[in-house]
Amino acid sequence: MTTTTSQTYLEAIRQGMWDEMEQDERVFLLGQDVGTYGGAFRVTAGFLDHFGPKRVIDTPISESGMVGAAIGASMMGLRPIVEMQFIDFISCAYNQIINFAATCRYRWGQNVPIVVRGPSGGNIHGSAFHSQNPESYFQHTPGLKIVAPSSAVDAKGLIRAAIRDLNPVLFFEHKYLYRRIKEEVPAGDWIVPIGKARLARTGRDLSIITYGAMLHVALDAAARLEADGIEIEVLDLRTIKPLDQDAILATAQKTHRVLVLTEEQTTGSVAGEVAARVGELAFAWLDAPVTRFCCPDTPVPFSPTMEEFYLPNAEKLVAKVRDLLRY
Amino acid sequence: MTTTTSQTYLEAIRQGMWDEMEQDERVFLLGQDVGTYGGAFRVTAGFLDHFGPKRVIDTPISESGMVGAAIGASMMGLRPIVEMQFIDFISCAYNQIINFAATCRYRWGQNVPIVVRGPSGGNIHGSAFHSQNPESYFQHTPGLKIVAPSSAVDAKGLIRAAIRDLNPVLFFEHKYLYRRIKEEVPAGDWIVPIGKARLARTGRDLSIITYGAMLHVALDAAARLEADGIEIEVLDLRTIKPLDQDAILATAQKTHRVLVLTEEQTTGSVAGEVAARVGELAFAWLDAPVTRFCCPDTPVPFSPTMEEFYLPNAEKLVAKVRDLLRY
Amino acid sequence: MSTTGKSFGSLHPDSPPVERLAETQLSRERQLDLYRLLRLTRMVEGRLGNLYRQNKVVGGLYTSLGQEATAVGSAYALEEGDFIGPLIRNLGSMLVRGVLPREVMMQYMARGLSPTGGKDGNTHFGDLARGIVAPISMLGSVIPVMAGVALAAKMQGRPLVALTYIGDGGTSTGDFHEGLNLAAVLDVPFVLIAEHNGYAYSTPTARQMKIKHIVARAAAYGIPGEMVDGNDILAVYEVTKKAVERARAGGGPTLIEAKTFRMKGHAEHDDAGYVPPELFEQWRKKDPIDRFERHLLGLGLATQEDLDGIIAEIDRGLDAEVDFALASPMPPPERALEGVYEPDPAEGLGTILPDAPPVNSQNGGVAR
Amino acid sequence: MSTTGKSFGSLHPDSPPVERLAETQLSRERQLDLYRLLRLTRMVEGRLGNLYRQNKVVGGLYTSLGQEATAVGSAYALEEGDFIGPLIRNLGSMLVRGVLPREVMMQYMARGLSPTGGKDGNTHFGDLARGIVAPISMLGSVIPVMAGVALAAKMQGRPLVALTYIGDGGTSTGDFHEGLNLAAVLDVPFVLIAEHNGYAYSTPTARQMKIKHIVARAAAYGIPGEMVDGNDILAVYEVTKKAVERARAGGGPTLIEAKTFRMKGHAEHDDAGYVPPELFEQWRKKDPIDRFERHLLGLGLATQEDLDGIIAEIDRGLDAEVDFALASPMPPPERALEGVYEPDPAEGLGTILPDAPPVNSQNGGVAR
Ligand SMILES: Cc1ncc(C[n+]2csc(CCOP(=O)(O)OP(=O)(O)O)c2C)c(N)n1
Ligand SMILES: Cc1ncc(C[n+]2csc(CCOP(=O)(O)OP(=O)(O)O)c2C)c(N)n1
Ligand SMILES: [Mg+2]
Ligand SMILES: [Mg+2]
Q1: Interface membership of D361 toward A (CB under 8 Å)
Q2: Which residues of A are less than 8 Å from C121 in CB distance?
Q3: Which of A117, A194, B42, D288 could form a disulfide with D231 if both were Cys (CB 3.0 to 4.6 A apart)?
Q4: Torsion sign across C-alpha atoms A95, A101, A102, A107
Q5: Which residues are placed with Cβ below 5 angstroms of ligand 4, an ion?
Q6: Given an 8 Å threshold on Cβ–Cβ distance, is A302 in contact with C58?
Q7: In angstroms, what is the span from residue D192 Cα to ligand 4's centroid?
Q8: Cα dihedral across residues A310, A315, A317, A319: positive or negative
Q9: Active site residue B140
């Protein structure tokens, strides 16, 4: 019998970090406004008071500097968590992440256990620089791990796993989910392992492979389609790198039809990588083309009318699924 | 009757830039050591003497600053060409490229006609930071164009097209080809259009889709396979963004078997994007899984023994093709 | 660093009733024009605040309350043909360059007739015809870009100056350093105004840098530095004018530090609980509009009626602007797909070389 | 900026025959040890040059000829437990920290027994046990990383100092600024040596920055700056020692500018045709080894025989190192696949929460 607490996605992340910091004094936070202010989204509210200024560090506006410092500190045995105020600003730390953090282990045997985390994703009318999903910028880089939870439980378990991981982990929180999701989260010291997808719904007609905020779009669409007796299987990747290839191939082999749904511009997307793998490794089982449903190849538009048009939603997804079932 | 000159890949790029600078006084160069020294690879040797220090600017070691300055200058009606001394250092300008250069047109109607170019690719034992193929870092970003020529003729025609293009163009030269390729290049004022692939070899048994240095590996393998009566079609993408989807689908429809060959780590590669498109849009024609042949998911290793193991070559490719033909 | 700016204006809270702002050659008319622009800035932001509270604004609202003089005074020192790269707190500089209040309102409300057609929000729009380059959100990034504008001007022999802004927080970015160093070493006509307003979001300057005065960084680039009372609009005008003239005359870039204070939170949602109330108290006394009014009235350059008249006229104008903006439609959804790339010109980009024929597998490997 | 470094050493080419280097408390033994390390650096690079000309080196060869005193003297001022982040021209600092010549040789020859197992080349290897962090090629990037090492030390209460290097060219990178500012504002035990050697590849300092002395940048971060004759090994030692002690005592970072000169091209393939021959002439007279020898001999700290003895011993040692390195095998090809990720510890990362059961489509949408 485990006790549970009702927690939002945001609270779960917060709690996960809090618990790790309580348990492991090597863990510390750095980022802009993470201390006094508790973070732009208040993810770290209360941390400064509780853990003190040594472990909760307000930094200058220096994303590259922050990540670099985290890399150095991690080599000394600490476990830094770097917050990007919005994940879009990770572009300013690109070099440190892909060239420094990601390669030390391979080049000279030095692992770099850091977490870089922050709010990603759209649907909050944040326009081009406060809505990005940067997972595809990094999916190509060996040495990185990338996580993108869709639920409070996963968010808590994965942030704990990310902090304990011995490699650099990029942890992309979907800000649309921060306060929109509330779940019973079990108490206790547990993790959700990096690299494992989760079957969110079983079905035999078609598989939707997705992650993050889109998981909820997929479940919504699946529920709608159920009325017509259509059984949709939904796989929540949870980890973008390394992909859980076994789970991906298993669902493809089961339903023979795969739609990959992600909140990214289509070209060069994570969805493309998933589709390429399914197409190559599950070819014999496929009854229809592996289909991507992502955003169009444009920056994220600001105005709600356009952003709604730009983003996948359940209604559009239902139509895509019906098309694919007719193939 | 057109006259031709025998030119290396490097000379062709150099000549293309030279001709554009002669014809169009808006075109200018900036980069580290591009002036007095003529560039680390001597691509711009002689430019300073001929065009003067106003149009050939040695800059500080500031990749982000260089690209930013190019963006600003382009808005004023100039046509800057920024050299990265090695293309790997483009990671330091990532933010300026994906967020500034790529989005102005969409957000406020301001186009940004700049070229960012430099030596990419491995096989010269340059290790992790002098061997990168960064096209996949950028393929996801709407607003960018990406070019990667495989021949001297294409290099010359495409650099001219890139300079004339009204959008930001990333021009990735493969340094392994710089002096290893020599061709007859026609004289005169012509371009090779961005966005058009080139059929490098016709065949009916299997298509290899590739670009850059790997084109030559593909042609080599195709020639070897010809001895066994195997007809390989080879498509040279030349442009990575926007992809020539028509040409890609046409060859897939023709041969029913597609292998995508690129010199990148496999996951999140351009090859993945091509494979995803073929899998989705040419599904009905496929007799075998679209197969990627890229590098393993590791940084580029330094030692020749390991780098040879890491890189695709004709021998390995022949084996892959035979496997795929047996499917 | 030079701190000639110190001679302008006064930071003393106990300044005498007749405000002694910096000396200026500006005529009475131009001073009243400056006053109008300063007032306009505050009043436009006031209207935006109303719209925000009415839930008409999409996303956050960022204002420059208490620091309007920096943006307005500096932009006023420019000539037609010059370029600015304003940040979110520099609405005033955009109004100086002719941006209409409705444009900003429609931007904030994501309307289809906004300068970006609803594609971007707030002050993030540009218009080269009016000499405005839009920044991106990533702080610091516009500095090298404006250095590039200045570089082009120099190359083209155009006698213009590029001016941009950075917050105290933004000075910590790599692009601040790369951009300013590049501008300095290439000796381009560039002016950077560092708006030192005490905080970067919740982070006080002492956590941002170990120096007290940002102007100390000018010496790191070998360029002149000026420190100015950012709440004395005449001082800001004069010090910028001097820098702009030097730049235009080929004297290269200047870094100007304007001391001011952000009188609200970072954005409308932020109650600025982390700012000690005394600081607000102190700085309220130095309000740039109040001070400019005391100067104008004290020196007999304007009567209270003159000022009231200006305010009333702005108010009337803003009613119409708000009405227009509110009545304007949201953009059509499909516009989301438009405008990513600049198309090739109709005549193409040049003669296309026909591709060499492919090797033909059926033909013994010979080109067909 | 403070320029206490100026008091150390002498930049005058016409220095008297008995070299007057900086005053030092270093004993005769330690001075001879320093001499050995200085010599060793030059001789190891000399051997690498031979190997390069024999086509045994894979890729380029980068040396520190003429500037060895900066790396050696500064690293010599550190204690065991301190950390360095050496760049390509700082082989000397690595040798000070116990790196064996064979390690560097095998790195340059891409051998399987090299510290990176052939995965990376030249001086790009690290070893925390010896306090060495490997940089990446992107200049400037190691500065924030070493600031992070220092930050950790401070947090952990370990009395150690992190020291790294940057070239005049590398100071133009954003990471120089972000890293140094971060170190300054967090007040961590960090020392940055800016090696001002006249050129960045072919680019003279005047094209890199508008300032003459890099040390002018210390004031931009509110930290002490020191300028030192980089070819006076004792001066470099002393000034670094002072900075390191201050840092260790909680006094925060220091920026040290060492004036020196790159006596070759950027790499072995570069003939440095762009450097005026007079400059080489001038600086040859200031060769740090010659000067240190004149000091040792002139003050009677060593005889020519002593020095010859040291050289001969190094030489014998290097013969063995070269032989070992040359005889060592290339790495097995499949090693390319190894070592990208650190595996989870055997016991795992914690208790794994079982996943909630999926919704079951066949069951009216209820979890099965
Ligand atoms: C590179 C980057 N990192 C983080 C942010 C998030 N952010 C937006 S405004 C701000 C504070 C800016 O402070 P300052 O530069 O002092 O300007 P002010 O708001 O005071 O005018 C931050 C951290 C950003 N926009 N860009
Ligand atoms: C970010 C980055 N840009 C470009 C380069 C290419 N590069 C390697 S060394 C060098 C010159 C370095 O000059 P400096 O910093 O003065 O060091 P020095 O070689 O004189 O020791 C350049 C431009 C690089 N390594 N990193
Ligand atoms: Mg501020
Ligand atoms: Mg140098």
Answers
A1: yes
A2: 125, 127, 302
A3: D288
A4: positive
A5: D 167-168, 197, 200
A6: yes
A7: 15
A8: negative
A9: no
How near does any CA of chain B get to the CA of D197, in Å? 15
CB-CB neighbours of D159 under 10 Å: 15
- In 3D space, the residue among A229, A249, A220 whose CA is nearest the CA of residue A237 turns out to be A249
Q: Is D103 on the interface with A (CB under 8 A)?
A: no
Active-site annotation holder among A50, A130, A140, A216: A130
Distance CA(B234)–CA(B271), nearest Å, equals 14
Q: Which chain D residues contact residue A145 at CB under 8 A?
A: 341
Tokens for B324, please give them: 């795929």
Given B130, B174, B216, B256, which residue is catalytic? B130
Dihedral (Cα; A13, A16, A21, A27), 10-degree rounding? -70
Q: Are B85 and B77 in contact (CB under 8 A)?
A: no
How much is the CA Rg of chain A, to the nearest whole Å? 19
- Tokens 């120089």: give the residue: D176
Query: How many angstroms separate the alpha carbon of residue C168 from the centre of ligand 1?
Result: 9
Rounded CA separation B316/B322 (Å):
10
Give the span between the Cα atoms of A320 and D255, in whole angstroms. 60
pTM summary value: 0.97
Strands, DSSP E only, in D149-252?
162-167, 190-196, 199-200, 203-204, 225-229
Burial status of residue B42 (CB atoms within 10 A of its CB: 0-12, 13-18, 19 or more):
middle
Q: Which helix (H) or strand (E) covers residue B174, if one does? A: strand B169-174
DSSP element (H, E) containing D85: strand D83-85
**Taking 80 as the threshold, does the pLDDT of residue D14 lie above it?**
no
Residue B207 contacts residue B251 (beta carbons within 8 Å): yes
| pLDDT given for residue D9 in this prediction | 42
Q: What is the largest CA-CA distance in chain C?
A: 97
What are the structure tokens assigned to C64, written together?
Answer: 């420059």
Specify the amino acid at residue C118. G
Give CA–CA dist A90/A92, Å, rounded: 5
Give the residue whose CA is nearest to atom 21 of ligand 1.
C167
Please count the other Cβ atoms lying within 10 Å of the Cβ belonging to residue B304: 18
The dihedrals phi and psi of B228, each to the nearest 5 degrees, come to -95, 15
Q: How far does the CA of residue B142 sit from the closest CA of chain A (Å)?
A: 5
pLDDT digits (tens, 9 = 90+) for D347-357: 999 999 999 99
Query: CA-based angle B201:B206:B210, to the nearest 5?
Result: 60
Residue B232: DSSP 8-state: E
Distance, CA of C278 to CA of B180 (rounded, Å):
71
Adjacent-strand bridge partners of A174: A120
Amino acid (one-letter) located at C185: V
Segment B44-69, tens digit of pLDDT: 999 999 999 999 999 999 999 999 99
Subunits with 3+ C-beta pairs closer than 8 A to A: B, C, D
Question: Is some CB atom of chain B closer than 8 A to the CB atom of A248?
Answer: no
| DSSP code string of A230-290 | --EEEEE--EEES--HHHHHHHHHHHS-EEEEEEEESTT-HHHHHHHHHHHHSGGG-SS--
The interface pTM score, or ipTM, of the predicted complex is 0.97
Under 8 Å between Cβ of A302 and A295: no
Beta bridge partners of B118: B172
Q: Tell which residue, D251, D350, D155, C204, has the closest CA to residue A51.
A: D155
Cis-peptide into C224, omega within 30 deg: no
Tokens of C101: 């209040």
- Chain A residues touching D145 at Cβ < 8 A: 68-69, 71-72, 75, 96, 100
Residue with the two structure tokens 């909680």: D250
Report the distance separating Cα B12 and Cα B10, nearest Å.
5
CA neighbours closer than 13 Å in the CB half-sphere of residue C326: 14
Per-residue pLDDT of D208-254, as tens digits, reads 999 999 999 999 999 999 999 999 999 999 999 999 999 999 999 99
Q: Helix D288-298 to helix D304-327 angle, to the nearest 10 degrees?
A: 140
